[in-house]
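Posting for a labmate who doesn't have an account.
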Amino acid sequence: MIYQRTIAKNVTVTGIGIHSGKKVTLKLYPAKADTGIVFKRTDVPQARNIKAYATEVGPTRNNTTLGDGADAIHTVEHLLSALYGLGIDNVYCELDGPEVPIMDGSSASFIFILKETGVDNLNKSKKFMVILEPVKVEYNGTWAMIEPAKNLIIDSTIVFAHPAINTQREVFEFSCENYIKEISRARTFGMLKDLDTYRRMGLAKGASLDNTIAVDDYKVVNIEGLRYTSEFIRHKILDTIGDVSLLGHELAGKITTYKSGHYLHNVLCRKILDTPSSYEIVSANSLTHETREAHRLPQIIGGLTTDSM
């Protein structure tokens, strides 16, 4: 049986919000089975608990935000991606600021922290959302689609008129181990020429070479270069996993995206939820052996180092 998971103990991390530029402390707490991932602002009086669910998503301009008021929580996608990557279903997340810390711009820091904290099985079977029929959404020349598959597969394409990026496509078949090795270290990226515009819009105030791949007109500016030759498209997959985790269950389905972003991912999730015939929720015991194995934690989870991620 594949059980639901939570973290083994409380953990605290402090960092900078990439858009707000503010120092934020994030505290994670274990939660009971069927709780889900729940966020709350501790710096806002009478802030409500916000469950990480597609219908709770507010603005999606350069990040995914839960809520749409004074107690909104921005840039949740990398943390959600890491939690999905380790199969963690139930956690309370408290923040004393408006935004999840960006850390190094990937989900690897969260993976490392969660590994050190420990992952506990709960005495209840995990449930999966199994896609039964295709669902597709389109917006302004971009599109995203999900269709039946035995496991979560993401086939993603990005197109940028830039010599360091151009057109990139990657097909990723999910397993916890593959996520840790192939996706988690991929960082967010941005164009230097757009930085002033973003900051006038109130975005990217905390962006730096410590948490972003920066590209000028011709090349990657970061001295250390790229972590993967296809780091740009792998980060898109990282974001996609975080965004589709807002369906509330781990997935068995193939997602194909073309020039997609947070907005389109959320539109796809909402359309799936609005199309009951497109999916069913099943116990992990009902899945194929291959799907169950993909969602088991690898043996290395107890001994990860930053070099092995």
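Reply:
Got it, the structure tokens are right above this. The chain is about 20% helix and 30% strand.
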